[in-house]
Amino acid sequence: MSSNIGVMGHPIGHTKSPVFQQAGLDELGIDETFEAWDVMPEELSEKVATFRDKNFLAACVTLPHKQAVIPLVDELTEAAEAVGAVNWIFNRDGKLVGHNTDSTGFLRALREKAGFDPRGVDAVVFGAGGAARAIVYALKIAGVARLTIANRTVSKAQALASDFSEGRFKPVAIGLDRDELANCAPYATLLVNATSLGMAGGPAEMATPITADMISADAMGYDAVYAPPVTTFLREVENAGGTSAGGMTMLVYQGIEGFEMATGQKAPVDTMFAAIEKALKSG
Ligand code: NAP
Asked: Which of 8, 37, 91, 128 has a CA between 20 and 30 Å from the CA of residue 242?
């Protein structure tokens, strides 16, 4: 029989979520196994229907299902509406609520682990896909002063900028050319890689959206990529004299909010971080 909590995606072999979620469940004495479900797109609606079962708690949702589950749930939270993606589904007495914790996960990672408050800063986000969308929403809420969205496909950066433009918050969209980056990146104190450049197993594992010569020594560089833990982008930030942090903290904090909403209990944060750090060290 299947467990009442887990993560679904396709493929799912790479997921690190069960490692730290199980550590949290065990620490609180919750008798559940956090499973990883490999769900093909054509199996998605059948799988989501099982989430209405009486004892079912919640499912974390990862690629490629974050948008596809939207019509399959009964209600979306404000965060899920704004980001346009669901990364958690909660069962509330048979009613399925879709939520997004990537934005708050990113902000907690930045503030609580990297010690960086984005309020009032100049920021550049590289990328315009799902992760970038959650991060742009987070930076809007956090009150950055100026935001540039730099993406290989400029039209996608423009669409993202326009979706979140409101009042004085008007993100500027550019490409990844050095000439364009030279006008904003050296003046930014927050640089966030939300592209898949640098991702292990991806098409451009050693690539970076920017090099040290265009990074300020005062900059904080955050990489949404969490495998490998240190990417070429983060090395370039360090080479410029800046401070760097990898995406593992965002991954764990998005999971911690999901854990707390699923169980109704405060997550044992230190235990959950210790579990993933141990797992990453042992490969
Ligand atoms: P996505 O929706 O597929 O977007 C991919 C982004 O990367 C797009 O902006 C794309 O640009 C860009 N890109 C891909 N290949 C490129 C290349 N060769 N040169 C330049 N740009 C390229 O993926 P996503 O869901 O946003 O995920 C992006 C990364 O964030 C992944 O590595 C993922 O693992 C990570 N992530 C981490 C967390 C976390 O909790 N830490 C959460 C979500 C995602 P185009 O628009 O031009 O194609």
From this structure: 128
